[in-house]
Amino acid sequence: MRKTVFFPGRVSVVFRKGPVGFLRQDPSEEARRIKDDPSMRDRSAPVKEEDVRQNALTVVRLRGGDASDPAEVLGEYRLQFGKYKGKHFRWLLENDVGYTLYLIQSHQKEEAAGVLQAERHSKDSLQSFLRYALSFQEISSLLQYEAQKRPPVPRPAAEEEELVGFGARAKSTWREVWESRHDGYAAFILKLFLTLFRSCSAFVLSCVFSQKSL
């Protein structure tokens, strides 16, 4: 007897909402586990945008979805950046709206400053995700609501929670760099700082001795 294969067809985003219907911005339990355990994160190199697109189209067609619907196809794209790298775009909207807002607002600030720090494939993935997220009225409405709220009094961040601000891990905090030190990046930073310190010390000492000899 031939086995019948069931395809769910179109898949829609199911947002997590609170008791009164507002979108929840806290991470889901699954997202929190990934956030708290760096070993669960995808450390592989980012994949080209076209490869991501072709994989997404294949998934949509196999489950009987609408491959002509850009939003449905984008929902099957896999993130090529950040702590949720490897997860589908749809998954991120369903599991961490707060992080989604952070990505949108950070990107808007970078655009306003004329600085975009993401690398090529990561940048392509980020821009595709932002286009996908902003296509939902729920996200646009939440952004408008957040913009209208009175800005909180800024508090100085703890040093370990500050962004690195340069290099391949520019958007990571110093805490995240240290917690993922097995990848060698923390050792690279320490070596870089030590080299700069030695160079600066040698320059200062040479200036002092030069003054004394006059």
Give the arrangement of secondary structure elements.
Blueprint: H1 29-36, H2 49-62, H3 70-75, H4 89-95, H5 97-113, H6 120-133, H7 137-148, H8 174-179, H9 185-213
Overview of the molecule:
With 214 residues, the chain is an all-alpha fold. The protein has two domains: 1-149, no CATH class; 154-214, no CATH class. Helices cover 53% and strands 0% of the residues. The protein contains nine helices and no strands. It has helices at residues 29-36, 49-62, 70-75, 89-95, 97-113, 120-133, 137-148, 174-179, 185-213. The N and C termini lie far apart (100 Å).
Number of strands: 0
Radius of gyration, whole Å: 22 Å
Please provide the ordered H/E string of secondary-structure elements: HHHHHHHHH
In whole angstroms, how far apart are the ends?
Answer: 100 Å
Main sheet summary? none
Q: Helices and strands: which structural class?
A: mainly alpha
Envelope shape: elongated
Query: How many domains in all?
Result: 2
Oligomer, anyone?
single chain
Contiguous runs where pLDDT drops below 50 for at least 5 residues: none
Beta-sheet strand percentage? Answer: under 5%
The number of helical runs is 9
Estimate percent helicity.
40-55%
In round numbers, the mean pLDDT is 84
